[in-house]
Write a structure and sequence with these properties.
This protein is α/β, with parallel strands linked by helices. The strands form four sheets. The protein has an eight-stranded mixed β-sheet with strand order 1-4-3-2-5-6-7-12, sandwiched between helices. The longest helix has 22 residues. Bound molecules: uridine-diphosphate-N-acetylglucosamine. The site of uridine-diphosphate-N-acetylglucosamine has 24 residues, from helix 7 and strand 9.
Amino acid sequence: MRVFATWKHKSRNWLHKIMERYVVTGGAGFIGSALVRALLNQGGSQVAVIDNFLSGKRSNLEGLDGALEVHDADIRDFDAMSRMVKGAAAVFHLAAIPSVPRSIAQPVPSHEVNIDGTFTLLRACAEAKAGRVVYAASSSAYGDTEVLPKVESMMPRPKSPYAAQKLMGEYYAGVFADCFGLPGVSLRFFNVYGPRQDPLSPYSGVISIFMRCLIERRSPTIHGDGEQSRDFTFVEDVAALCIKASQAPGVSGKVINAGNGNRYTLNQVWQTLNKIEGVSIAAEYGQPRPGDVRDSQADTTLARTLLGHQPEFRLEEGLRRTLAWYRETST
Ligand code: UD1
């Protein structure tokens, strides 16, 4: 395990004492690094990133200084986790092997990381008496529902190993709160997009793939008819919600949607991107993807009432910002 400390003011130990320590697993990932940025920006935070750099990247943390430590460690390593979560006011557990189709193609690694890793991390947090766990759950847990938007009280119907694994993580977070006194709240992320989402894997999120196609003036392949819809949620809104969930009173044991409250079809998203870019590139269409949910849209009432959350970014603004980032960073 290697530790990289970028805190420039280490000698100021008195400051250490008044700063809150936060841990972000998966902190070098696309969503994790946005959360780390938001935590450092709020001031008074000391942030420890835990990442095994399987999909996380050091470059996602570039330009960040202040009270940041980066630990190259795996969430399945109980001893390492126990040491690292000690004294944490909150542990944000975002490390995972994401992707519905990857969990179908390779169910064993995704099970080991998403279920065994989550269990190990929660156990370490309980034993170290960490302040609170904020768990990155997934909207995929709902599966196909007859009614939209999707409300937390609906019966989950996971359609893929990934969805089942993320649901199990929620159950474990709740059980650790009830049985082991570890405060925990689960946020069901709804299709998060934004700067730093890696477009290069076949399992990448669709918006990152669309961005790359647009910049390279290529047609994307849409699985199915493109009329499936998602509640695409800008990464900065999700980071803000995570922080609120780490602070709000009375939310331990709760499951709360982290979505925007709208839904757009893939065809609409591709058309919007064409409009923003002033081009007209037709999409290609392929076979529907196994395990895919047809429609997804969050009911955001609970996030609003329990966490005082109001998403800031509507889709077009989020797409513009995301596209600007891809343009700046593409060579
Ligand atoms: C699911 C979860 C999401 C979670 C993510 C993690 C749902 C509703 N959402 O996202 O909360 O964060 O897993 O991986 O289950 N597609 C194409 N062309 C492509 C790539 C994707 O058409 O090149 C389509 C997919 O078939 C799907 C949609 O785009 O219909 C979104 O896919 P993706 O971005 O992979 O996310 P979900 O699987 O919806």
